[in-house]
Amino acid sequence: MKNITYVQAINEALAEELERDEKVFIIGESIQQGAFGVTAGLVKRFGTDRIMDTPISETAIAGAAVGSAMTGYRPVADFMFADFMYIAFDEILSKAAKWRFMHEGTQSIPAVFMAAMGGYLGLGAEHSQAPVSYYMHTPGIKIAIPSTPYDAKGLMKTAIRDNNAVVFLYHKALLGLAGQIPEEEYLVPLGKADIKRQGDDVTLVATGIQVHYALTVADQLKDKINIEVIDPRSLEPLDIDTIIKSVEKTGRAIVVDEDISRCGVACEIAMQIVERAFDFLDAPVQRIAAKNYPIPPGAMERFVLPQVDQIAAAVKAVMG
Amino acid sequence: MKLEKEHLIKFYSLMVRSRKLDTLLIEALNSGRMAGFYHAGQGEEGVGVGACTFNMRDDDYLYPHHRGHAISFNLARGISPKGWVCRHFDKNPGEVEGPRPEERGIFGISGTIGGGFVLSLGWGLTAKKNKKGQVTLSFFGDGASGRGTLHEAMNLASVWKLPIVWVCENNQFGQFVPIKDAFAREDIADLAAGYNMPSAVVDGQDVIAVHEAIEAAVQRARSGDGPSLIECKTCRMRAHAEGVPDVNHTQMRSEEDKAPWRKRDPIILLKEKLLAQGIVKEEELTRIEQEAEKEVADLDQFQAQCPVMLPKDASILDDFLYAK
After folding, report:
1. From the list A57, A99, A139, which residue is nearest B156 (CB)?
2. Whose CA is closest to B202, among B15, B46, B39, B24?
3. Nearest-by-CA chain B residue for A102
């Protein structure tokens, strides 16, 4: 095992896949230098033909990724901030997600759309979002959200090798998070949840930085309540079976999600729990998500983004 | 290349076949025996046929456009029209002989106008990375020139010297809006100067002129000198789509406006040239027309006896959704 940070883990995954498959390349604005460090140093090793700097042209970045993916390449398109992906939604949500379907499975789009997501850095409404529900809402595109260095590396490698479009959203407040990973190569599959902490009393479902907030709450309350924390790691495909199995054991479920509450990821997962495990529930399913506002700047963002004390309050509420 | 008699006859045949297939779908939609959309392309066949018949290799990439639902492009690339006809009638043709569209670099058409610019950019990037001298021909209408994707794609294609030929088929209307009220200059080709690439404006009614302009641009792209923009002036002869009014903003377009274009219809223009120069006898052209007529009637009969495109159950959608 070795110690590595979250950002280094993504960097390692990219480097290994670039090394392994000459069809892999990265394209995005200022990625040779990089805004968050995930592509740091890659241009020195792989050259400017494979680590391609672009102008500020999100639709061109996404469209070029889709076009080159359908003609034999495995592009990783970088959008810097996840918020900027909105500019390229026709390319991501309609072309990448639907092209194979529209052509009855005769083509495939092995492209990764990568960006830094999330808040807690006070960066305001257009640089702090966790725009996950749009992707989960759109059939035809997969979504990976790592919460640890181990998952970040393994999920990225899998995303690049997947023969379909995958959105890979890494949390920009986790970049410096350290963790252990194996020295040897490994993959983390899409569609396989990870139980980050075992417990019998309450099931907490969370992704990204929310996993760490859930673990914090689990630790705070450990003397009285045994909390099970499940990180789905990918939202499409979603490992609902692992979640249901946990809820059947605990009888209580809380879904934590950094995206906007209304029509969000938490709604979807909570509804699936209700549909499949209603008879096991001892309390209504709770959701903790961003409130239905744009994310305010600076200190005010705490009024909107999920907070540790809200998760703790929800746990106490379902325990009665 | 020097165009010989056989090439000119090929142009003629492809344009006539495109026209008759276009006419079939217009009739079928308007008589109610076909459902869905149809965006007729008649009068504009000179562009796709002139550009794509003799200038492309099998491994080149092609983004057509929605007018005529790309029939002239498919025929020019040697793709059987069987699948095209059956698809419109929601019929399953079974195995179709000949290359599939994607085997001739035609991967599909964006449902959003202007979506093709950035996909073509990706194919241009692939062509450059492959280093095999492939080119991408990317067609768009004057209407698509309003999209920002044009700027992003043309700019990057030029910065990266990608082997792309951008071809504007300017038929003067984007749905109900005339291009003169939607674009600030007379020629869309003028945009090329802003991207530091060469351009040309050609008569889109003249299939030979289109061929020659695209030939030069393709050679340039193939030899690594980067993209060009060719604008082909033509005219939309019917409504944007069958069943919608053929208006200029809100006023019906007049026959007077179309008459000069009708006189210079690309099929008539080539026919006159071939006859005037004594290259072919009229009987030869008549025979081509009769053969096309029969081909289309046979295709219509064929689709009528094909089963509806409806697999046994919905599980096939899972295969459409994700690759393994």
Report:
1. A57
2. B46
3. B320
Residue A64 and residue B125: Cβ atoms within 8 Å? yes
A177 — phi, psi (to 5°)? Answer: -60, 130
From CA A98, how far away is CA A234, in angstroms rounded? 19
Token code pair at residue A57: 């042209």
What residues does B166 pair with on adjacent strands?
B138, B229
Q: SS3 of B260, please?
A: helix
What digits encode the pLDDT tens for the residues A105-120? 999 999 999 999 999 9
Contact call for B118 and A54, based on CB within 8 A: no
Task: Search chain B and give the residue with CA nearest A109.
Answer: B323
pLDDT of A202-222, one tens digit each?
999 999 999 999 999 999 999
DSSP secondary structure letter of residue B281: -
Please confirm, yes or no, whether A127 is among the known catalytic residues. Answer: yes
Domains of chain A: 2-181 (3.40.50.970), 194-319 (3.40.50.920)
Catalytic residue among A103, A127, A171, A212: A127
Distance from CA of B146 to the nearest CA of A (A): 15
By the 10 Å C-beta count (0-12 exposed, 13-18 middle, 19+ buried), A318 is classed as buried
Q: Which tokens go with A239? A: 């490992």
User: In this predicted structure, what is the pLDDT of residue B42?
Assistant: 97
- Give me the domains of chain B, ranges plus CATH numbers: 5-321 (3.40.50.970)
